[in-house]
Design a protein that fits this description.
Layout (H helix, E strand, L loop, with lengths): L1 H26 L2 E4 L15 E4 L6 H9 L3 E7 L2 E3 L12 E5 L2 E7 L4 H17 L4 E5 L3 H4 L3 H16 L3 E5 L2 H10 L2 H4 L2 E5 L3 E4 L4 E4 L2 H16 L3 E7 L3 H14 L2 E5 L6
Parallel strand pairs: 1-2, 2-3, 3-7, 7-8, 8-9, 9-12, 12-13
Antiparallel strand pairs: 4-6, 5-6, 10-11
Length: 270
Amino acid sequence: MKAKHIKCLAVLFSAVTVLLVACCKDSFDYGVFIGDDINQQKKYECYDNIVVDPSSFKSKQVETLKADGKNVYAYLNIGSLENAQPYYKSYEDVLLDRYDGWPDEHWADVTKEKWQRLVVQDRARVYKERGLDGLFIDNTDVYYRYHTPEVYQSLKSMLASLKRQGFKLIVNGGDVFVSETLKDGSAKKLYDGVNQEDVFTTYDFNKKKYGRQAKKNTDYYERYLKQARKAGLDVYIVEYRAGRELSKKIDAYCDRHGYKWYNADGINLN
């Protein structure tokens, strides 16, 4: 009786495992983990496309992920700099105002050749050496903050250079910059996809509270993403702590439009 009971449990366990693996493969095709390290790679098994902080990964870890069929994107901050970066002191002379909501980060003067070399030569070389083929480009919002033709052209120049090096590029946020490239027809030549945060959810930095995005903002982002998709770009969405009912709505929305989305546990993305 005991042996039979154990055998039944084993069969049940196997069935549940198969079911979980199937659900895992079907449900999670995109995840953003820039607050993680290599010791947390177990969670990546359920994702086909992942964004990671490249400073935490060595070539061997990247090779393992790619061998498992995953598309791995390295986070690359193109428009600002955190003081935690080891090269921060060397670039203080090209930093501008403090980044609202992130006290340890400053906007960068992207028109400076020194900054451009850091992005398209130094960082790009390191990421290539680690086997990373994709880049998750953050903070083209610098064009919204410093709205000049020089900033716009500098961002385009850096993206074009990264693209020529064979990277697949996803631009995170930067709707003002992206919209400008959609208007002048350069978007598809510069990058492959866009990621937008907070389409349906939001985070109040002052109150440190997660909530639901205002309808007018959701409507704006939906129109914006539709334009990006129409231009032939891949579309990704990151939400923060979307509840069960809202998640169902987002699932249906993304299924209709062919978007991928990730429901993050918090703004630190870990």
